[in-house]
Design brief:
With about 325 residues, the chain is of the alpha/beta class. The chain contains 15 helices and 14 strands. The radius of gyration is 22 Å and the shape is globular. The two termini are about 30 Å apart. It binds adenosine-5'-triphosphate. The site of adenosine-5'-triphosphate has 12 residues, from helix 1. Belongs to the ABC transporter superfamily. Keywords: ATP-binding, Nucleotide-binding, Transport. This is ATP-binding cassette domain-containing protein. It comes from Acerihabitans arboris.
Amino acid sequence: MIRLENITKIYPGTTAKAVFDLTLEIPEGSTTALIGPSGCGKTTTMRLINRLEDATRGRVFVNGEDVTAVDPVQLRRQIGYVIQNVGLFPHMNIADNIATVPRLLGWDRRKTDARIDELLHLVGLDPAADRGRYPAELSGGQRQRVGVARALAADPPVMLMDEPFGAIDPLVRGRLQNEFKQILQRVKKTVVIVTHDLDEAIKMGDRIAIMRDGKLCQYATPEAILSKPADDFVAAFIGSDASLKLLALTPVGQAMTPAAQSGYPLSVNARASLKDVLALMLAQDAPGVRVTDDQHQVLGELNRQQLFHYQQTLLAA
Ligand SMILES: Nc1ncnc2c1ncn2[C@@H]1O[C@H](COP(=O)(O)OP(=O)(O)OP(=O)(O)O)[C@@H](O)[C@H]1O
């Protein structure tokens, strides 16, 4: 668990408050996305957690310990850190890059090698082929995977990710987001991810913290932010397509009427989002869909009217 208590940060030589009286609690095992306009204090907030910055006022706790009471180097070994463009060591191959922290921790060679293979596998790289390659020989997306593997190497309970997908083209970014969301669910880390991209925050975050001028405007689930923005700023920030974003968050299995059979020929998987199902219904001019499981068994059905009605209930929730 990460807890920031009434944090204010004023950088030396300045008078402006980069972060002002921020209180935020990130439950263990959950992911929080920090989002807001440029300069609102996202990166500062993240760097206060691993003590790359110290707070001017207030306290930060990581797993119950005040971070100022822990040796910073010791603290950072418990916190994986992923930044844009990764910062891999160019003169080291992939295996050596991933092994940095395990070696600092004095792991023996066999344990380190096994961990490298396990992690390359986890992030979708091929241990046999990729171990010996150098960062310059990889694509941006592959480098980012290595960056995440390196951050996970010593199995830290906390992961900080600062715009981890910012430098990657949109298509690959979408795929990496999905993969990392699954990985993070599997490894059960407490994660803070800084992003400029609301869609990324919605996709990755169990909760979203929206900041403005160093202050926290709203801290809630993506559903709550989209359906009940706390003020005009948040409403403007999420924009006019909030209802479409809500549909994108909701699986059709949640909205369908359960049934053992369906007269609709068009079939969709229960995990498909309502946004995709709506697009499909419109494209195929279908009045409704049958909803099936992975074995193509019918679980229920949903027609257009029910979908729009469900959208209203999401907005009113
Ligand atoms: N080292 C520093 N010295 C002085 N001021 C700083 C320093 N780092 C950041 N700031 C200021 O603190 C404020 C918050 O910066 P921060 O980088 O946390 O914002 P951000 O929300 O992450 O921005 P961006 O989205 O552009 O990366 C800004 O006004 C910035 O200019």
